[in-house]
Design goal:
GS catalytic domain-containing protein, 10 helices, 19% strand, nucleotide-binding, alpha+beta, nine-stranded mixed beta sheet
Length: 432
Protein backbone atom coordinates (compact mmCIF):
# COMPACT_ATOMS: atom_id res chain seq x y z
CA UNK A 1 0.00 0.00 0.00
CA UNK A 2 1.32 3.40 -0.93
CA UNK A 3 -0.73 6.32 0.27
CA UNK A 4 -0.18 10.05 0.04
CA UNK A 5 -0.19 12.04 2.17
CA UNK A 6 -2.55 11.46 5.14
CA UNK A 7 -5.50 9.42 6.36
CA UNK A 8 -7.88 12.36 6.32
CA UNK A 9 -9.90 11.52 3.25
CA UNK A 10 -7.65 13.43 0.87
CA UNK A 11 -5.04 10.74 0.37
CA UNK A 12 -4.57 8.79 -2.85
CA UNK A 13 -3.71 5.14 -2.86
CA UNK A 14 -1.50 3.16 -5.19
CA UNK A 15 -1.93 -0.52 -4.46
CA UNK A 16 0.82 -3.05 -5.02
CA UNK A 17 -1.42 -4.57 -7.70
CA UNK A 18 -0.32 -2.66 -10.75
CA UNK A 19 -2.91 -3.64 -13.32
CA UNK A 20 -3.24 -6.33 -15.96
CA UNK A 21 -4.25 -7.38 -19.43
CA UNK A 22 -7.94 -7.00 -18.61
CA UNK A 23 -7.78 -3.24 -18.94
CA UNK A 24 -6.84 -1.97 -15.48
CA UNK A 25 -4.45 0.98 -15.24
CA UNK A 26 -0.78 -0.03 -15.36
CA UNK A 27 1.23 1.91 -12.78
CA UNK A 28 4.67 2.89 -14.02
CA UNK A 29 7.39 5.02 -12.38
CA UNK A 30 6.43 7.82 -14.76
CA UNK A 31 2.72 8.03 -14.00
CA UNK A 32 3.34 7.46 -10.28
CA UNK A 33 5.59 10.53 -10.34
CA UNK A 34 2.80 12.46 -12.09
CA UNK A 35 0.27 11.29 -9.52
CA UNK A 36 2.47 12.57 -6.68
CA UNK A 37 3.35 15.87 -8.37
CA UNK A 38 1.82 17.99 -5.58
CA UNK A 39 2.97 15.83 -2.65
CA UNK A 40 6.21 15.80 -0.69
CA UNK A 41 5.86 12.64 1.40
CA UNK A 42 4.53 9.12 0.95
CA UNK A 43 3.43 6.35 3.33
CA UNK A 44 4.71 2.91 2.35
CA UNK A 45 3.40 -0.20 4.10
CA UNK A 46 3.07 -3.95 3.83
CA UNK A 47 1.44 -6.66 5.93
CA UNK A 48 3.26 -8.80 8.47
CA UNK A 49 2.36 -12.43 9.20
CA UNK A 50 -0.55 -11.35 11.44
CA UNK A 51 -2.08 -9.18 8.72
CA UNK A 52 -1.00 -5.97 10.45
CA UNK A 53 0.26 -3.10 8.30
CA UNK A 54 3.89 -2.17 8.97
CA UNK A 55 5.38 0.82 7.23
CA UNK A 56 6.99 4.23 7.29
CA UNK A 57 6.75 7.72 5.89
CA UNK A 58 9.41 8.67 3.36
CA UNK A 59 10.14 11.69 1.23
CA UNK A 60 8.75 11.68 -2.29
CA UNK A 61 12.29 11.85 -3.67
CA UNK A 62 13.37 8.76 -1.74
CA UNK A 63 10.21 6.95 -2.77
CA UNK A 64 10.62 7.66 -6.48
CA UNK A 65 14.24 6.51 -6.41
CA UNK A 66 13.17 3.33 -4.61
CA UNK A 67 10.54 2.36 -7.17
CA UNK A 68 13.05 0.65 -9.45
CA UNK A 69 15.05 -1.14 -6.77
CA UNK A 70 12.32 -1.96 -4.25
CA UNK A 71 11.69 -0.94 -0.64
CA UNK A 72 13.82 -2.51 2.06
CA UNK A 73 12.72 -3.16 5.63
CA UNK A 74 14.20 -5.28 8.38
CA UNK A 75 13.17 -8.92 8.15
CA UNK A 76 12.48 -8.71 11.88
CA UNK A 77 8.98 -7.73 10.76
CA UNK A 78 8.55 -11.44 9.97
CA UNK A 79 10.51 -12.52 13.03
CA UNK A 80 8.20 -11.18 15.73
CA UNK A 81 4.55 -11.09 16.64
CA UNK A 82 2.16 -8.13 16.72
CA UNK A 83 3.68 -6.98 20.03
CA UNK A 84 7.24 -7.08 18.62
CA UNK A 85 8.12 -10.12 20.69
CA UNK A 86 10.50 -12.40 18.81
CA UNK A 87 9.08 -15.77 17.82
CA UNK A 88 9.96 -18.63 20.13
CA UNK A 89 12.03 -20.30 17.41
CA UNK A 90 13.77 -19.02 14.29
CA UNK A 91 11.87 -19.32 11.04
CA UNK A 92 13.02 -20.12 7.53
CA UNK A 93 12.52 -16.48 6.52
CA UNK A 94 14.53 -14.70 9.20
CA UNK A 95 16.58 -15.50 12.29
CA UNK A 96 18.79 -14.02 14.98
CA UNK A 97 21.78 -15.94 13.58
CA UNK A 98 21.39 -14.12 10.26
CA UNK A 99 20.98 -10.80 12.04
CA UNK A 100 17.49 -9.99 10.72
CA UNK A 101 18.77 -8.85 7.34
CA UNK A 102 16.93 -6.44 5.05
CA UNK A 103 14.05 -7.78 2.96
CA UNK A 104 12.85 -6.25 -0.30
CA UNK A 105 9.19 -5.56 0.40
CA UNK A 106 8.02 -4.14 -2.89
CA UNK A 107 9.39 -3.81 -6.37
CA UNK A 108 7.36 -2.10 -9.07
CA UNK A 109 7.47 -4.11 -12.28
CA UNK A 110 5.23 -3.48 -15.28
CA UNK A 111 3.31 -6.71 -15.93
CA UNK A 112 2.81 -8.08 -19.43
CA UNK A 113 -0.16 -9.79 -20.99
CA UNK A 114 1.78 -13.07 -21.09
CA UNK A 115 1.23 -13.65 -17.40
CA UNK A 116 -2.57 -13.61 -17.41
CA UNK A 117 -5.36 -15.93 -18.47
CA UNK A 118 -8.46 -16.07 -16.32
CA UNK A 119 -9.09 -13.54 -13.58
CA UNK A 120 -10.08 -14.28 -9.99
CA UNK A 121 -12.45 -11.70 -8.63
CA UNK A 122 -13.46 -11.24 -5.05
CA UNK A 123 -15.42 -9.09 -2.72
CA UNK A 124 -15.16 -9.16 1.02
CA UNK A 125 -17.63 -8.79 3.88
CA UNK A 126 -15.87 -7.86 7.10
CA UNK A 127 -17.48 -7.34 10.47
CA UNK A 128 -16.11 -5.44 13.44
CA UNK A 129 -17.18 -4.67 16.99
CA UNK A 130 -17.12 -0.91 17.47
CA UNK A 131 -16.30 0.19 21.01
CA UNK A 132 -16.40 3.55 22.76
CA UNK A 133 -13.34 4.48 24.81
CA UNK A 134 -13.90 5.52 28.41
CA UNK A 135 -11.61 6.04 31.39
CA UNK A 136 -12.56 2.64 32.83
CA UNK A 137 -12.90 0.26 29.88
CA UNK A 138 -14.03 -0.22 26.31
CA UNK A 139 -17.77 -0.58 25.89
CA UNK A 140 -19.85 -1.42 22.80
CA UNK A 141 -20.86 1.55 20.70
CA UNK A 142 -24.50 0.47 20.95
CA UNK A 143 -26.12 -2.13 23.19
CA UNK A 144 -28.26 -5.13 22.39
CA UNK A 145 -28.82 -7.09 19.19
CA UNK A 146 -30.23 -5.31 16.14
CA UNK A 147 -29.01 -6.15 12.64
CA UNK A 148 -29.77 -3.78 9.75
CA UNK A 149 -30.92 -1.05 12.10
CA UNK A 150 -31.70 2.33 10.53
CA UNK A 151 -31.70 4.12 13.88
CA UNK A 152 -28.61 2.88 15.76
CA UNK A 153 -26.06 4.43 13.37
CA UNK A 154 -27.69 7.83 13.96
CA UNK A 155 -26.07 8.10 17.40
CA UNK A 156 -22.64 8.06 15.72
CA UNK A 157 -23.65 9.26 12.28
CA UNK A 158 -20.56 11.40 11.65
CA UNK A 159 -18.23 8.42 12.04
CA UNK A 160 -20.63 6.09 10.24
CA UNK A 161 -20.94 8.28 7.12
CA UNK A 162 -17.39 9.63 7.11
CA UNK A 163 -15.88 6.15 7.05
CA UNK A 164 -18.13 5.22 4.12
CA UNK A 165 -17.05 8.36 2.23
CA UNK A 166 -13.35 8.04 3.08
CA UNK A 167 -13.27 4.47 1.76
CA UNK A 168 -13.91 5.87 -1.71
CA UNK A 169 -10.94 8.23 -1.43
CA UNK A 170 -8.69 5.47 -0.10
CA UNK A 171 -9.47 3.03 -2.93
CA UNK A 172 -11.19 0.50 -0.67
CA UNK A 173 -14.73 1.39 -1.67
CA UNK A 174 -17.56 0.10 0.51
CA UNK A 175 -20.71 -1.06 -1.29
CA UNK A 176 -22.83 -1.44 1.84
CA UNK A 177 -22.32 -0.64 5.52
CA UNK A 178 -24.79 -1.62 8.24
CA UNK A 179 -25.27 -2.87 11.77
CA UNK A 180 -25.03 -6.62 12.32
CA UNK A 181 -26.41 -8.83 15.08
CA UNK A 182 -24.50 -7.99 18.23
CA UNK A 183 -23.70 -5.04 20.49
CA UNK A 184 -21.89 -2.44 18.42
CA UNK A 185 -21.30 -4.80 15.48
CA UNK A 186 -21.07 -3.32 11.98
CA UNK A 187 -20.46 -5.05 8.65
CA UNK A 188 -18.86 -3.53 5.55
CA UNK A 189 -19.04 -5.12 2.10
CA UNK A 190 -16.01 -4.02 0.07
CA UNK A 191 -16.62 -3.61 -3.66
CA UNK A 192 -15.63 -6.50 -5.92
CA UNK A 193 -12.21 -6.27 -7.57
CA UNK A 194 -9.33 -8.42 -8.78
CA UNK A 195 -8.28 -10.79 -6.04
CA UNK A 196 -4.82 -9.29 -5.44
CA UNK A 197 -6.25 -5.78 -5.15
CA UNK A 198 -8.98 -7.01 -2.79
CA UNK A 199 -6.44 -8.23 -0.26
CA UNK A 200 -4.84 -4.77 -0.21
CA UNK A 201 -8.24 -3.12 0.16
CA UNK A 202 -9.22 -5.20 3.18
CA UNK A 203 -6.01 -4.15 4.94
CA UNK A 204 -6.61 -0.52 3.98
CA UNK A 205 -10.18 -0.58 5.25
CA UNK A 206 -9.10 -1.89 8.64
CA UNK A 207 -6.50 0.85 8.92
CA UNK A 208 -8.94 3.50 7.74
CA UNK A 209 -11.66 2.47 10.19
CA UNK A 210 -9.21 2.75 13.09
CA UNK A 211 -7.67 6.02 11.91
CA UNK A 212 -11.09 7.61 11.40
CA UNK A 213 -12.25 6.31 14.77
CA UNK A 214 -9.55 8.22 16.65
CA UNK A 215 -11.34 11.48 15.84
CA UNK A 216 -14.54 10.18 17.44
CA UNK A 217 -13.04 8.21 20.34
CA UNK A 218 -14.14 4.96 18.66
CA UNK A 219 -11.99 1.83 18.49
CA UNK A 220 -12.92 -0.87 15.94
CA UNK A 221 -12.10 -4.38 17.20
CA UNK A 222 -11.35 -7.08 14.61
CA UNK A 223 -11.04 -9.99 17.03
CA UNK A 224 -12.99 -13.00 15.84
CA UNK A 225 -14.79 -13.37 19.20
CA UNK A 226 -14.37 -10.45 21.59
CA UNK A 227 -17.56 -10.97 23.63
CA UNK A 228 -18.92 -14.15 25.20
CA UNK A 229 -22.48 -15.19 24.39
CA UNK A 230 -22.98 -13.33 21.11
CA UNK A 231 -21.91 -14.08 17.51
CA UNK A 232 -18.35 -13.22 16.57
CA UNK A 233 -16.91 -11.05 13.79
CA UNK A 234 -16.59 -12.65 10.38
CA UNK A 235 -14.45 -11.98 7.33
CA UNK A 236 -16.58 -13.64 4.64
CA UNK A 237 -14.97 -13.85 1.19
CA UNK A 238 -16.92 -13.95 -2.08
CA UNK A 239 -14.97 -15.37 -5.02
CA UNK A 240 -15.67 -15.85 -8.73
CA UNK A 241 -13.64 -16.59 -11.84
CA UNK A 242 -13.86 -14.75 -15.16
CA UNK A 243 -12.24 -15.01 -18.56
CA UNK A 244 -10.35 -12.15 -20.21
CA UNK A 245 -13.61 -10.70 -21.54
CA UNK A 246 -15.18 -10.68 -18.09
CA UNK A 247 -17.52 -13.66 -18.57
CA UNK A 248 -18.24 -15.46 -15.31
CA UNK A 249 -16.81 -18.99 -15.64
CA UNK A 250 -18.75 -20.36 -12.68
CA UNK A 251 -22.10 -19.68 -14.39
CA UNK A 252 -23.75 -22.34 -16.57
CA UNK A 253 -24.95 -21.19 -19.99
CA UNK A 254 -28.22 -23.08 -19.50
CA UNK A 255 -29.46 -24.97 -16.43
CA UNK A 256 -28.52 -28.61 -15.96
CA UNK A 257 -31.86 -30.44 -16.23
CA UNK A 258 -30.58 -33.53 -14.43
CA UNK A 259 -28.07 -32.39 -11.78
CA UNK A 260 -26.93 -34.62 -8.95
CA UNK A 261 -28.33 -31.95 -6.62
CA UNK A 262 -30.54 -29.02 -7.55
CA UNK A 263 -28.12 -26.71 -5.71
CA UNK A 264 -25.66 -27.00 -8.63
CA UNK A 265 -28.15 -26.82 -11.51
CA UNK A 266 -26.81 -23.40 -12.57
CA UNK A 267 -23.16 -24.06 -11.69
CA UNK A 268 -20.71 -24.77 -14.53
CA UNK A 269 -18.53 -27.89 -14.61
CA UNK A 270 -15.52 -25.69 -13.87
CA UNK A 271 -17.39 -24.16 -10.93
CA UNK A 272 -18.21 -27.62 -9.61
CA UNK A 273 -14.56 -28.66 -9.79
CA UNK A 274 -13.50 -25.44 -8.05
CA UNK A 275 -16.06 -26.03 -5.28
CA UNK A 276 -14.91 -29.65 -4.89
CA UNK A 277 -11.31 -28.48 -4.52
CA UNK A 278 -12.28 -25.97 -1.85
CA UNK A 279 -14.27 -28.51 0.15
CA UNK A 280 -11.46 -31.05 -0.02
CA UNK A 281 -8.88 -28.52 1.21
CA UNK A 282 -10.81 -26.77 4.02
CA UNK A 283 -9.68 -28.95 6.97
CA UNK A 284 -6.01 -28.62 5.95
CA UNK A 285 -5.94 -24.84 5.33
CA UNK A 286 -7.86 -23.69 8.40
CA UNK A 287 -5.00 -21.53 9.78
CA UNK A 288 -5.39 -19.37 6.67
CA UNK A 289 -8.94 -18.54 7.82
CA UNK A 290 -8.65 -18.86 11.59
CA UNK A 291 -5.07 -17.86 12.54
CA UNK A 292 -5.35 -17.19 16.28
CA UNK A 293 -6.38 -18.97 19.46
CA UNK A 294 -9.35 -16.61 19.68
CA UNK A 295 -10.48 -17.52 16.13
CA UNK A 296 -11.84 -20.84 17.33
CA UNK A 297 -14.01 -19.21 20.00
CA UNK A 298 -16.11 -17.95 17.06
CA UNK A 299 -16.31 -21.32 15.28
CA UNK A 300 -18.80 -22.99 17.60
CA UNK A 301 -22.32 -24.28 17.06
CA UNK A 302 -25.40 -22.02 17.05
CA UNK A 303 -23.60 -18.71 16.53
CA UNK A 304 -23.94 -18.22 12.76
CA UNK A 305 -20.44 -19.53 12.08
CA UNK A 306 -19.71 -22.78 10.20
CA UNK A 307 -18.15 -25.69 12.06
CA UNK A 308 -18.02 -28.46 9.43
CA UNK A 309 -17.18 -29.22 5.80
CA UNK A 310 -20.44 -28.13 4.24
CA UNK A 311 -21.94 -26.21 1.33
CA UNK A 312 -25.31 -25.34 -0.12
CA UNK A 313 -27.23 -23.00 -2.38
CA UNK A 314 -27.92 -19.80 -0.42
CA UNK A 315 -27.12 -21.69 2.79
CA UNK A 316 -25.90 -19.24 5.42
CA UNK A 317 -24.93 -21.86 7.98
CA UNK A 318 -22.63 -23.80 5.64
CA UNK A 319 -18.88 -23.24 5.23
CA UNK A 320 -19.40 -22.38 1.56
CA UNK A 321 -22.55 -20.62 0.40
CA UNK A 322 -23.20 -21.16 -3.31
CA UNK A 323 -24.79 -18.17 -5.04
CA UNK A 324 -26.11 -18.81 -8.57
CA UNK A 325 -29.17 -18.24 -10.71
CA UNK A 326 -32.06 -18.07 -10.08
CA UNK A 327 -30.98 -16.27 -6.89
CA UNK A 328 -28.73 -13.89 -8.84
CA UNK A 329 -27.91 -13.04 -12.45
CA UNK A 330 -25.34 -15.34 -14.13
CA UNK A 331 -22.62 -12.68 -14.01
CA UNK A 332 -22.83 -12.61 -10.22
CA UNK A 333 -22.38 -16.38 -9.75
CA UNK A 334 -19.92 -16.92 -6.92
CA UNK A 335 -19.00 -18.76 -3.74
CA UNK A 336 -19.08 -17.16 -0.31
CA UNK A 337 -16.45 -18.73 1.94
CA UNK A 338 -17.90 -18.15 5.40
CA UNK A 339 -15.11 -19.66 7.52
CA UNK A 340 -12.76 -16.66 7.86
CA UNK A 341 -13.04 -14.38 10.86
CA UNK A 342 -12.33 -10.65 10.95
CA UNK A 343 -8.86 -11.48 12.27
CA UNK A 344 -7.78 -13.13 8.99
CA UNK A 345 -4.73 -12.20 6.94
CA UNK A 346 -6.50 -11.25 3.67
CA UNK A 347 -3.59 -12.08 1.35
CA UNK A 348 -3.05 -15.52 2.88
CA UNK A 349 -6.76 -16.38 2.93
CA UNK A 350 -7.46 -15.30 -0.65
CA UNK A 351 -4.36 -17.08 -1.95
CA UNK A 352 -5.39 -20.30 -0.21
CA UNK A 353 -8.94 -20.13 -1.62
CA UNK A 354 -7.78 -19.64 -5.20
CA UNK A 355 -5.08 -22.31 -4.92
CA UNK A 356 -7.46 -24.84 -3.38
CA UNK A 357 -10.17 -24.21 -5.94
CA UNK A 358 -7.74 -24.34 -8.86
CA UNK A 359 -6.39 -27.67 -7.60
CA UNK A 360 -9.93 -28.97 -7.93
CA UNK A 361 -10.17 -27.63 -11.48
CA UNK A 362 -6.86 -29.14 -12.57
CA UNK A 363 -7.80 -32.53 -11.12
CA UNK A 364 -11.42 -32.29 -12.31
CA UNK A 365 -12.49 -33.15 -8.77
CA UNK A 366 -16.11 -34.07 -8.10
CA UNK A 367 -18.19 -32.82 -5.18
CA UNK A 368 -18.21 -35.73 -2.77
CA UNK A 369 -20.69 -34.57 -0.14
CA UNK A 370 -24.35 -33.57 -0.49
CA UNK A 371 -25.44 -29.98 0.12
CA UNK A 372 -26.35 -29.13 3.70
CA UNK A 373 -30.05 -28.79 2.88
CA UNK A 374 -30.19 -32.32 1.41
CA UNK A 375 -28.25 -34.14 4.09
CA UNK A 376 -30.17 -36.47 6.38
CA UNK A 377 -29.87 -35.98 10.16
CA UNK A 378 -27.89 -39.21 10.40
CA UNK A 379 -25.40 -38.10 7.73
CA UNK A 380 -23.14 -35.87 9.78
CA UNK A 381 -20.69 -33.60 7.99
CA UNK A 382 -16.98 -33.88 8.79
CA UNK A 383 -16.09 -31.55 11.67
CA UNK A 384 -13.47 -28.90 11.02
CA UNK A 385 -10.58 -28.44 13.49
CA UNK A 386 -11.85 -27.08 16.80
CA UNK A 387 -8.65 -25.37 17.93
CA UNK A 388 -5.50 -23.78 16.58
CA UNK A 389 -3.49 -26.80 17.81
CA UNK A 390 -5.63 -29.20 15.83
CA UNK A 391 -5.68 -26.96 12.75
CA UNK A 392 -1.88 -26.57 12.79
CA UNK A 393 -1.38 -30.33 13.03
CA UNK A 394 -3.32 -30.82 9.79
CA UNK A 395 -1.83 -27.73 8.11
CA UNK A 396 1.82 -28.77 8.57
CA UNK A 397 1.36 -32.54 8.15
CA UNK A 398 3.61 -34.19 5.57
CA UNK A 399 0.82 -34.98 3.07
CA UNK A 400 -1.50 -32.04 3.76
CA UNK A 401 -3.29 -30.18 1.01
CA UNK A 402 -1.66 -27.03 2.38
CA UNK A 403 1.78 -28.38 1.48
CA UNK A 404 0.52 -29.28 -1.98
CA UNK A 405 -0.98 -25.90 -2.90
CA UNK A 406 1.22 -23.50 -0.89
CA UNK A 407 4.96 -22.98 -0.81
CA UNK A 408 6.66 -25.47 1.53
CA UNK A 409 8.79 -22.80 3.20
CA UNK A 410 5.72 -20.64 3.75
CA UNK A 411 3.87 -23.51 5.45
CA UNK A 412 6.82 -24.07 7.79
CA UNK A 413 7.19 -20.34 8.45
CA UNK A 414 3.54 -19.68 9.21
CA UNK A 415 3.27 -22.81 11.36
CA UNK A 416 6.23 -21.54 13.42
CA UNK A 417 4.51 -18.18 13.95
CA UNK A 418 1.38 -19.96 15.18
CA UNK A 419 3.46 -22.18 17.50
CA UNK A 420 4.55 -18.92 19.11
CA UNK A 421 0.92 -17.85 19.48
CA UNK A 422 0.10 -21.15 21.20
CA UNK A 423 3.13 -20.92 23.49
CA UNK A 424 2.13 -17.47 24.76
CA UNK A 425 -1.45 -18.62 25.25
CA UNK A 426 -0.42 -21.69 27.24
CA UNK A 427 1.81 -19.56 29.48
CA UNK A 428 -0.90 -16.98 30.18
CA UNK A 429 -2.87 -17.13 33.42
CA UNK A 430 -6.44 -15.99 32.74
CA UNK A 431 -9.52 -15.39 34.89
CA UNK A 432 -10.81 -18.75 33.66
Amino acid sequence: MIEAPTLNGSGRVINGALGDARGATIMTPENIATLLANDHKVKVAGLDSDGVLRGKVMSKEKFLVSIASGFAMSSAVFGWDMHDELYSSDTCITSAQEGYFELEFMNFQTPTADGYSEGDRSNHDIAAFLTKNSQKALRPLTSGMFAYSMTRPVANKDYFHQLFDYSEDMNCRVESWHTESGPGVYEAAIKVSEVDEMADKVALFKLLSKATGIKYNITPCFMAKPIYGVPGSSGHIHVSLTDLEGKNLFARDSPDLNPQWRDIAYLSDLGRHFLAGLLDALPDIMPMFAPTVNSYKRLIENYWAPVDVSWGLEHRLASIRVITAPVCKPGATRFEVRLPGADLHPHYALNAIVAAGWRGVKRKMEISIPPAGSRSPEDKAARLPKSLDEALERFRAKGSVAREILDQDFVDFFAATRDHELKLWREAVTDW
